[in-house]
Amino acid sequence: MALLPHLAKACHVLRVDVTSLSQRSAFSVSAVAAAIQKMTRVRVVDNSPLGNTPHHRAPRVIHVYTKNGIGKVGDKVMLAIKGQKKKALIVGHKMPGNRMTPRFDSNNVVLIEDNGNPTGTRIRVPVPTHLRKMEGDYSKLLAIASTFV
Amino acid sequence: MRIDKCYFCSGPVYPGHGNMFVRNDCKVFRFCKSKCQKNFKKKRNPRKTRWTKAFRKAAGKELTVDNALEFEKRRNIPLKYQRELWKNTVEAMKKVEEIKQKRQARFIINRLKKGKELDKEEAIVEVKKNIHLIKAPHAGKAKQMEEKMVQKLQEDVDMAEDNI
């Protein structure tokens, strides 16, 4: 019986320690890394005037042209930029994908016409090389890209 | 095919291993394993993380300035393909690797020599302090007594001779 107060004191010390540990972070503070879907804000990385003029609303994806609504590298999407609709191609996303493909710090997109030709004339941001192997005619896009990753 | 260096630990990243991260300033970071990647995401400085090569070189624990290490530096000038050059390069690579290992090992051994001397001195001090644990209390005394007796006898003989 004489042990109990001693144990209680020890437990009290332990309990204080545990709460200070659990108070550190009850939730994750880093951004969600999801693939590109409807309503995602994207970053236009070519030098087209439509993509580079500032607007009070960031360009957003309003439709993803895949069977499921998930957009990965090489998928075409429809953007809403400056109050108009424009098609674009995804060239990099924050979500980690295949191990041998790079992960980017932002969701990058290149503006495209309906026939697949790029709107801008140069892409300064690094573009993943596995676009070359993908099904689809990305030759014009790869031609205007300056660096590959 | 190129064997890259991990950004965090400076280890080799062989093809098929590791991850790549592209930052928005177009800088590319290669990682050899998720340990390095996780540490990078935690914003740890590799020059302060003790197990990385970056720390060891910055803290002077490993060879930094050496001719053998100059061969590893990246050259951004493309060379025209020549078979002879390739053959010679492969042979040279083997030799340079050998020399580099020896030099690195020698550097570390030289660095640790001081520690060995300090260890020895410490050991001597410890033995002297705790000699009572090893040596019996009257260990060398018998010989001392014998020498004293011999000396005394000699003196007695001398005195007796003088008296005579």
How would you concisely characterize the structure shown here?
The complex is a heterodimer of chains A (149) and B (164). Chain A has 149 residues and is α+β, with helices and mostly antiparallel strands.
Give the topology:
The complex is a heterodimer of chains A (149) and B (164).
Chain A: H1 3-22, E1 43-44, H2 49-52, E2 60-64, E3 76-81, E4 84-92, E5 103-104, E6 108-112, H3 139-144
Parallel strand pairs in A: 1-6
Antiparallel strand pairs in A: 2-3, 3-4, 4-6
Chain B: E1 4-5, E2 12-13, E3 19-22, E4 28-31, H1 34-41, H2 53-58, H3 67-70, H4 83-129, H5 141-163
Antiparallel strand pairs in B: 1-2, 3-4
Radius of gyration of chain A: 24 Å
Q: Which runs of chain B of at least 5 residues are low in confidence (pLDDT < 50)?
A: none
Strand order of the largest sheet of chain A: 1-6-4-3-2
N-end to C-end Cα span of chain B = 105 Å
Shape of chain A: globular
Share of β-strand residues of chain A: 15-25%
The tally of beta strands of chain A, per DSSP, is 6
Instruction: Name the structural class of chain B.
Output: mainly alpha
* Radius of gyration based on Cα positions of chain B: 33 Å
Using CB atoms under 8 Å apart, which protein chain pair has the greatest interface?
A: A-B, 16 and 10 residues
What's the oligomerization state? heterodimer
Classify the secondary structure makeup of chain A into a structural class. Answer: alpha+beta
The pLDDT mean of chain A sits at 85
Key terms for this structure?
heterodimer, A: 149 residues, 5-stranded mixed beta sheet, B: 164 residues, mainly alpha, two-stranded antiparallel sheet, 54% helix, elongated, Probable ribosome biogenesis protein RLP24 (chain B), Ribosomal_eL24 (chain B), nucleus (chain B), structural constituent of ribosome (chain B), Ribosomal_eL24_CS (chain B)
